[in-house]
Write a structure and sequence with these properties.
Layout (H helix, E strand, L loop, with lengths): L4 E7 L2 E6 L8 E6 L4 E6 L10 E6 L8 H17 L2 E5 L13 H4 L9 H13 L2 E9 L6 E9 L2 E7 L20 E4 L2 E5 L8 H9 L4 E5 L5 H4 L1 H8 L2 E5 L4 E2 L2 E2 L3
Parallel strand pairs: 5-6, 6-7, 11-12, 12-13
Antiparallel strand pairs: 1-2, 2-5, 3-4, 7-8, 8-9, 10-11, 14-15
């Protein structure tokens, strides 16, 4: 199927894209989350795929540093706005619940959450209500190891679906987080097979390639990019024959400016 993508701006914080319905090339998909010891298996027999064009939304959301609860509530509002305007999938930026720059584990400790956890539960209320999906970045704490990760969660109509932990870290994150240990899981959904990369992952072609060879139709890409990470995305999409939905910030935090 020839894939087509058109852009329709909605307002300053939200853009809607039209995607031709994705059909999985595999009969089943299994992803194992090491660390959480969680295995998730979805098959085409229990998922009714969307085959008609559908809308997705990239949310240009600017969280405030050290304001997790406020950020989550504001992101919920913007996400619901997107769902009301017909988006079946929303992608929000990297670390969208907390802001990005934290000096060490002590400074970010009050704002981390487990995945799944309280934060994913809040977004699940919307995805269940509208029969939709969201991918958003957040700092994760593994409840078994107490290790922190720069992560992203995928939540859908059935609630929490899966997560990704950033593979290629930027220097700042290494003061509080660990390298991702889940590989690049691909999750089968009604809108197609979804994988996730985060920001600096795009600088290394292998991260997106792992998603492509595992059958991803859509690569959700939360980022806090000044230019480098997003500049590689057209190549990653062409190399792997998949849609990439990127969501970036558009403000300045601790002297670092993100382009939107």
């Amino acid at each position: 199927m020839k894939r087509q993508l058109s852009v329709m701006p909605l307002f300053l914080l939200l853009s809607l894209f039209l995607i031709v319905g994705c059909t999985s090339n595999t009969t089943s998909n299994t992803s194992t989350e090491s660390g959480s010891e969680e295995t998730k298996t979805n098959t085409q027999e229990n998922i009714e795929h969307i085959t008609e064009p559908f809308k997705v939304a990239s949310v240009q959301f600017n969280p405030e540093l050290n304001e997790r609860d406020k950020n989550v509530e504001e992101l919920l509002k913007v996400t619901e706005e997107a769902f009301k305007n017909g988006a079946k999938l929303v992608v929000a930026p990297e670390m969208s619940t907390t802001g990005y720059y934290y000096a060490d584990r002590k400074s970010i400790q009050p704002f981390v959450d487990t995945i799944p956890g309280k934060t994913t539960e809040k977004f699940a209320t919307l995805t269940k209500k509208y029969d939709t999906y969201i991918v958003f970045g957040m700092p994760e704490v593994d409840e078994k190891t107490d290790i922190y990760y720069n992560a992203a969660a995928l939540v859908g109509p059935e609630g929490y679906i899966g997560k990704y932990r950033k593979t290629h870290m930027w220097e700042t994150e290494m003061h509080w987080g660990a390298w991702g240990d889940l590989g690049v899981p691909v999750y089968e959904t009604k809108v197609g097979n979804i994988a996730i990369n985060i920001c600096m992952d795009s600088a290394y072609f292998e991260t997106a390639r792992l998603a492509g060879v595992a059958g991803a139709d859509i690569l959700a890409f939360p980022t806090n990019s000044s230019a480098q990470a997003i500049s590689a995305l057209p190549a990653r999409a062409q190399q792997n024959g998949m849609y990439i939905i990127s969501a970036n910030r558009s403000n300045t935090e601790e002297g670092f400016h993100m382009l939107g």
